[in-house]
Design goal:
By secondary structure, this protein is of the alpha/beta class. The chain contains 17 helices and 13 strands. It binds uridine-diphosphate-N-acetylglucosamine and uridine-5'-diphosphate. Pfam families: Epimerase_2.
Amino acid sequence: MKILSVVGARPQFIKAFPVSDALRREHEEVLVHTGQHYDAELSDVFFTELGIPEPDYNLGVGSGGHAAQTAEMLVRLDEVVEAEAPDLVLVYGDTNSTLAAALVAAKRDPALAHVEAGLRSGNWSMPEEVNRVLTDHCSDFLFAPAESAAETLRREGITSGVHVTGDVGFDAILRVRDRAVEGSTVLDRLELDAGEYVLATVHRAGNTDDPARLAAVIDGLAESPLPVVLPLHPRTEAALKTHGLWDRATDALHVVDPVGYLDFVCLLDGAERVATDSGGVQKEALYLDRRCVTLREETEWVETVEAGWNVLVGADADAIARALRDDEPLPPKPSLYGDGHAAERIAEALRG
Ligand code: UD1
Ligand code: UDP
């Protein structure tokens, strides 16, 4: 089968790492990068260190408002789909790149496959919720990371084409964990001692675009009994500067540039705990046996909370501070989100 895979943002490059590998064993893959993320530390580093094939197309769309960015992707992706005439378009997750490619496929001939189907936050103010719901409802193949996601799809009336595969993010981390922990020099470079720091990430629009929420997140993290290292997404850097919070953040936290995946996995492995509003990082914390404090009111990865390994604290400084001090023993860790072979299941399901 000729598959046109579309990526555009950091988490999608990481998900494409195992999936592209599995697809190329038995299918023809054309890889398209929309250019949504373009800084070397948000894009090139992942292709280089993970050996992801170089994209056949980079559409160079770049940043912009939701409408302009998505519209530009629609136009450029449509041209690629016309030129390549793939049998199937494959998309990941919930970004604007995901939605644009889904709409192009839905309005043209190719079938559509969605990796990470069936996840819901229930929060319609998140752009990602709109992207993932619309993408699922256009898809012919829906690759769900867990049975709960398949159940969500059933409740929404989607019953055919659903495959519970496990999480391709688990595949990715298993592939690099040893290499990252043994090979990365990030702890030395950042002068961190394993087990003696908290790893934080913040980039969700709901937190960065609201100055009160962003300030509360910074103030909550600042109350951590251990130093907090914060590899900073450019969106958050811009927001901290715009909202006059830059000095408050850099005085209290160890703010560093975003790091590559190998360094990030090493930082996760060495962290005492994790505080994040990322989707991907919540479950990566679990995969590496770290407790997670989630800086949001809801999560798509509900099993991590049900299992007692993740706590939702929102943007409430006191709740964040309490969660960073909580040392109640964790319950036994359940096995969630597959066995590390989700990518192979996806390739196999597409074999037909
Ligand atoms: C996007 C996704 C989000 C995902 C995140 C992963 C959407 C709506 N959001 O959010 O779901 O969790 O990627 O990291 O698709 N910027 C740079 N350099 C870059 C890219 C972005 O400086 O290489 C800055 C620009 O100022 C840009 C801002 O970051 O306006 C936001 O980038 P954008 O891709 O629109 O959204 P993210 O916040 O990255
Ligand atoms: N990540 C990384 N470097 C960083 C921060 C995150 O490599 O500085 C990785 C992380 O391991 C995870 C992915 O990026 O696999 C998560 O991306 P992000 O939080 O940007 O997006 P989300 O998952 O929220 O969509």
